[in-house]
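Hi R.,

Here's the chain you asked about this morning:
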Amino acid sequence: MPTFFVASQAIVPPTVRITGPLLRHLRQSLRLQPGETLTVTDDRGTRYCAEIVEITSEALTGRILETTPAPATKSPSIILAQSLLKGEKMDWVIQKATELGVDRIVPTLATHSVVRPRAERIEHQRTRWQRIALEAAQQSERWSMPVIDEPVAISELLARSKSATSKIVLAERSGGTSLTTVPLPGIGEELWLLIGPEGGWDDAELGQVLQNGYTAVTLGTRILRAETAAIATISVLQSRLGGLE
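And the predicted structure, written out as tokens:
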């Protein structure tokens, strides 16, 4: 069973008390019963294994059996700036990037982005993406959830990442540095990864990105779909950083 994220207020040793939507999921979908165990992780990065003592329509009460602190950070934070993709493709990238350990996802509006979100739908969409990330983080037993930002223009993205020392952009046919050899940051630092849209980068736009300190990298001679490129790139980075060990 996956871990479930709870607010730190739900933990009052030696008990855990769960209410709200998570209670409904555990009670109605998973049909958990007293005597069974579940694992929860709070927003301070501590994980608890608890035995269910009582579960009603009002609350689940569990007795904490084991407490485990979050492991020490061993790699930099990966921030994925993903140019907006159509429909389920964006959902898929958010889900898989979360499973692979990305710490933050910044949906980005590129010149050739097919999707242009309406202002009145942005918060609804971001909430939906955050829910997808939550479910993926729980399923993959992560210790924390990634943050999902609202969509931003390239100019805003460049402003946000201005002070970062490690910034790479995936650029097909660029003759850029191989992703397998590009220098990577150390523990506790940030690595910004910018992935383009289905239609590829506009030349002027890519030039602006490179002028702002991003290094063009390549995955080789194959031209991958945007969603494939994102997950392939994160996988290579995590392999090099030890995140898949």
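The radius of gyration is 20 Å.

Let me know if you need anything else.
M.
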